[in-house]
Amino acid sequence: MIATTRYQLALLAHSQRYLPPLIVFLAVLGVLYTSREAPVLPEFAVSGGALVVVTCWLAIALADVEDPVQRLVTLSHTGRRTVLLAGLGLAILVCGTALAGVSMLWATLVHGGIAATELGWGALAHAACAFTGLAVGLPCSRLLVPRAGYTVVAALLALAVVLVVRWVPLVNPMLRQLAGEHAPAAPVLTALAASAVALVVSATATTLASAR
Amino acid sequence: MRRLAGVAKRYGRNNYVLDGVELTIEPGNVVGVVGPNGSGKSTLLRIVAGLARPSRGTVTGDPVTGYVPDRFPGAQRLTALAYLVHMGRISGLSTAQARARGGAWLERLALAGGPDTPLRELSKGNAQKVGLAQALLAEPRLLVLDEPFSGLDESAHGVLGEVLAELSAREAGVVFTGHSAGRTRAHATTTLRLAAGSLRALEPESDATAVVVLTGAATDGWQTEPDVLSAVERSGAVELTVLARRCDEILLLALRRGCSVRHVDRRE
Question: Which InterPro entries would you find in this protein's record (chain B) (predicted)?
Answer without folding.
Answer: AAA+_ATPase, ABC_transporter-like_ATP-bd, ABC_transporter-like_CS, ABC_Transporter_VariousFunc, P-loop_NTPase
